[in-house]
Amino acid sequence: MGGSAAGRGDRTGSNKAGAGAGQGLFASVPSQPPSMQCFPSLVLALSSLLGALALLQLSLYLRVPSRYGKHEERLCRPRSRVPARCAWFLQELPSFLVPALLLALRSPPRLEPLGCRLLCCLFCWHYFYRTFIYPFFTRGRPFPLQLLFFGTLFCIYNGFLQGYYLIYCADYPNDWCTDIRFTSGLLLFLLGMGINIHSDLLLRQLRKPGEVTYKIPQGGLFTYVSGANYFGEIVEWFGFAIATWSLPAFAFAFFTLCCIGPRAYHHHRYYLKTFTDYPKSRKALIPFVF
Questions:
Q1: What pLDDT sits at residue 72?
Q2: Does the predicted TM-score (pTM) go above 0.85?
Q3: CA-to-CA distance for 261 and 61, rounded, in angstroms?
Q4: Is 227 helix (H, G, I), strand (E, B) or coil?
Q5: What are the pLDDT digits (tens) for 64-113?
Q6: Helix, strand or coil for residue 64?
Q7: Residue 161 and residue 172: Cα distance in Å, rounded?
Q8: Which end is more exposed in the chain, N or C (fewer Cβ atoms within 10 Å of the end residue's Cβ)?
Q9: How many Cβ atoms are within 10 Å of 224's Cβ, its own excluded?
Q10: Where are the alpha helices (DSSP H) in the chain?
Q11: C-alpha 9: how far from its chain's center?
């Protein structure tokens, strides 16, 4: 504004007065660091890479499960493992901190745009639970250090992608909260998160403190599928994708499906092989279907 005033002064021939007015105006406004900008090509590239990683996950673990938990290799050295509670906390923490940091660096830092509110109320809400609540109640086995490393890298990557898009790129109309995509997506997100949390609770109740043996899950959606917790998380992130109607969110939902969908299938096979009394009518991931 001051620059344009000085320019007008120059064009009218009042160089000295225009320059003085410009200097005075700039002097009265404190300098601020430049704000991050939206680069659609970056969003497209990162989302495409996430989709490619999803297909890679599917090809690697569709036939052979990832080697941790029920499917861990017995010959793995103890020094290459991390306690389950510590591992889950360290792995999930970047998914909460990176968007929070991007939000804090926003100039000015405010929650007025709907994209920022969606990020905080949905994405960060999930990862607040995963980071600060879930790890301190889990009773899982020690976690392989290599998987912890790659899981942490993914959380940094995805946390940046989702946060960057919703804070700096997303542009929603004023009536987006009444749009059928937002309302249906929000309902799916809440339903999926409820299923996920309830299923985690049922799994924890199978074990007494200190136990690491596996038992048949009972109750809730486990009545119908072996991977009720995975089903809930997949529904949750597809709901998030519909509510935000964004390429990064759909890429993340697709990655979630390709990552934990096969794991639910391998869990189902493990239960059928290990327990002779395992319910034969129970499906692997999708009730009554698969």
A1: 62
A2: no
A3: 10
A4: coil
A5: 777 666 666 544 455 588 898 999 999 999 999 999 999 888 877 667 77
A6: coil
A7: 18
A8: N
A9: 16
A10: 2-11, 15-27, 40-61, 84-105, 114-118, 124-132, 145-164, 180-204, 228-244, 247-274
A11: 52
